[in-house]
Amino acid sequence: MHELFYCSMATREMVEADILDLLKVSRDKNARLEVTGLLVYQKRTKEFLQVLEGEKEVIFDLLKTIKADDRHTSLHLIYDKEIPERGFKSWSMAFANMESIDKSKLEGTSDFLEKGYTHELAKANPTWAAQIMQTFQDGLPAE
Q1: What is the pTM (predicted TM-score) of this model?
Q2: How many domains does the chain have?
């Protein structure tokens, strides 16, 4: 089992209908490909963070498709690694809005969330980005 984590910038502000459409298409495709994960969007800064889990070749093929999507740009792969098991077992694509995060659970990340530099800071300090995704994962409903 493999996991990758990337960040990117939306090319325009994503409204609710855009996000719902993106999630519907992603969830359908991911279910067929046996891919799980989490997508986070920060409206204020137009940034995406996404974790994808699945067979390595499958998620990297999916990443190629994602890179070609004109709804975002500046995609940066933060990490990819082998994992012992899925962290998002029941989620073909969980979704969270960055503004909904409980900042009290994140140590030392005030600049990361308050100043709107999440894309740049995710590249500079991937552990912060991973900590944010873990916080979202911990807040998901039980399977």
Answers
A1: 0.70
A2: 1
